[in-house]
Every structure is written in structure tokens, then in C-alpha cells.
Design a protein that fits this description.
Number of strands: 3
Number of helices: 4
Shape: globular
Distance between the termini: 9 Å
Order of helices and strands: HHHEEHE
Length: 105
């Protein structure tokens, strides 16, 4: 899931799935006048095999929802063409029950 933040909420059409954000980007929907070129550039890099730093996710515990803390653009770019999502993707994930109290969680 994405953080609870106005830009991502709008891009997702109030969904929680990166696939929905990717569909909106492919349909030319731009949020707050911000170009989607950055997502497309990252996606082109992914298609060319360029690797990126690990994304950082957080969760209250192993059974709670997982939220992207850092790497929103990258996860969105992966979903522009799902065949480019690697079978395994290393991420960093932090767990703390206190995340449930975070406004963006």
C-alpha cells in the first residue's frame, strides 16, 4: 500500500493498489499538474536492467498491512508493465506497533 498522502491518494483514485496507479498513469491522468514522465523514465530504466536501491516498507506487525515508506515511484513504475516485476525483489521492512498510530500509515 501507499502512504496516506494526498498525491498518492489521488493517483490511486482512492484505491490502495500500485496497479491502479499504473493504470491511471497509462491513461494520462496527471495529479496536481505533476507530469508522469518520472514514472515512465524509471520504468524505461527497469526495462533496461538498471537496478535501484532497496525500497523501504513499514508495518505494525507481520500480519498487518505493509506500507511503502520510500520507493513509491519505483513500485509504481514496476506496475506499468507487470512482466518486468522481478520474481524476487529485496526490500527493507521495519516493524513497529507504533506505525498504526502514524497518520500516513
Amino acid at each position: 500500500m501507499y502512504i496516506n498522502y494526498s498525491y498518492w491518494n489521488e493517483l490511486l483514485s482512492n484505491s490502495i493498489l500500485p496497479l491502479d496507479a499504473a493504470k491511471n498513469i497509462q491513461n494520462g491522468i496527471e495529479i496536481f499538474g505533476v507530469s508522469n514522465d518520472g514514472f515512465k523514465d524509471i520504468h524505461a530504466d527497469i526495462k533496461h536492467g538498471i537496478s535501484f536501491p532497496k525500497m523501504i516498507f513499514v508495518s505494525a506487525n507481520e500480519k498487518s498491512r505493509i506500507v511503502v515508506l520510500e520507493g513509491h515511484a519505483r513500485i509504481t513504475a514496476y506496475f506499468l508493465e507487470i512482466e518486468y516485476i522481478p520474481e524476487e525483489l529485496e526490500v527493507i521492512i521495519g516493524y513497529s506497533e507504533k506505525f498504526a498510530d502514524w497518520d500516513l500509515y
